[in-house]
Amino acid sequence: MSKLDERLAELGVVVPATSKPVAAYIPAVASGNLVFTSGQLPMVDGVLPTTGKVGAEVAPDAAKAMARTCVLNGLAAARSAIGSLDRITRVVKVVGFVASDPSFTGQPGVINGASELLAEIFGDAGQHARSAVGVAALPLDASVEIEFVFEFA
User: Does domain 3-152 have CATH number 3.30.1330.40?
Assistant: First the structure.
């Protein structure tokens, strides 16, 4: 068992198999020593467990939990591109999109779900640059979508 696998087991976290893309793209691309993921939806076994706008149909805490699921899917996508998560040396950037009710302004708190999990998994190497953006709609009526950039060796 790898060091990262041990850490994930300690946290009770399972990285799923890579999800099949919902459109014409691939889950991740490696370029140089960086791997860029496509936008990751909070799919669980190929299904969105919740849909709708945060601040209307979806509570912020539920959306924050979905951001954690996006991390797991992002790690699966990265693994598909570089072969092993043990190769990740740093989380470089997180870009989070939150489908938001017009009055909702808590996007940073929602995307904290992703940032906090990355710090739990990678420690200091999980600290990253980040954007958290409110949008009118996301694919499949998802509440959250997140892109990741990881450095690897």
Answer: yes
Chunked into runs of 10 residues, the chain (153 residues) has average pLDDT values of 86 90 92 98 95 98 98 97 96 98 98 98 97 98 98 97
| Domain range summary for the chain, segments of one domain joined by + | 3-152
- Tokens 């489908």 locate to 99
The predicted structure's pLDDT at residue 1: 67
Report the predicted TM-score, pTM, of the whole model to 2 decimal places.
0.96
